Amino acid sequence: MKLTILCDNNTMIDQYYLGEPALSFYIEEGDQRLLFDTGYSDVFLRNAASLQIDLTQPMDIVLSHGHNDHTRGLQWLKEKHLLANKRIIAHPDTFNQKIMASLDIGSPLSVQELKASSSLILSKTPIKLNASITYLGEIPQHFSFEPRMPIGMTWHDHKLVPDLLLDDSALVYQSSKGIFIITGCSHSGICNIIETAKQLSNESRILGVIGGFHLFDVDERLAQTIDYLKSNQIDLLAPCHCVSFHAKAEISKSMRLIEVGSGACLEII
């Protein structure tokens, strides 16, 4: 599997690609082409062009959740008529309106608009995208130190309720050597996500984890997260997007991290 970062908060030294506080990955595995999240603007498209990655071809688009730093790029795909040959996979709550301090922080496109311009699959249960890559669906709670914390409000069953981000999900790639986990923001809890991937794959060997971990403070939650990550003996840990400098520094005291950013590429065997 080859994973290229089309958009991240971070940019790499002497790598002249654009960054923004958002996330988008391009994944190649065998004949499968997959876009994981679409960033906040057209940055992912501009970086893809610079990297000579063709996003006009048929592929799956998997959305980690509905926040606009992961879904707003959909409007550029729609404007450029690039959705017709795409299959979009997401949790059913992904396109519910999301509000924070009176601002709309959700997807720019509705379910109706996406159904009219693409093939849309909404699922709470895991979906096998090919022989090696699986969309995890709704993430169950495994650890008490990772409770779901509401971010803003969302419309659910015709009511405005605290948004617990039940739509937050991830991908797992499985090889003969173990599993590799790909996250968006980990609102569900990075350890909850990893444990779900392990159980779904029936595999305890973790080759690596890349993506947003949603960790900001050096606190008890981070300490327990580090203990869990260490106990799993993860070979490659690449936190990005929504992980603070202080959290990365604390994790790096116990585990080896790699720096990633827009334009970076990982190959997992």
UniProtKB/TrEMBL annotation:
InterPro entries (alphabetical): DHPS-like_MBL-fold, Metallo-B-lactamas, Metallo-beta-lactamase_dom, RibonucZ/Hydroxyglut_hydro
Residue ranges annotated for the Metallo-beta-lactamase domain, each copy included: 21-81
One Pfam family this sequence matches: Lactamase_B
Molecular function GO labels: transferase activity
PANTHER family from the UniProt entry: 7,8-DIHYDROPTERIN-6-METHYL-4-(BETA-D-RIBOFURANOSYL)-AMINOBENZENE-5'-PHOSPHATE SYNTHASE, METALLO-BETA-LACTAMASE SUPERFAMILY PROTEIN
Protein name in the entry: 7, 8-dihydropterin-6-yl-methyl-4-(Beta-D-ribofuranosyl)aminobenzene 5'-phosphate synthase
Organism expressing this protein natively: Dielma fastidiosa
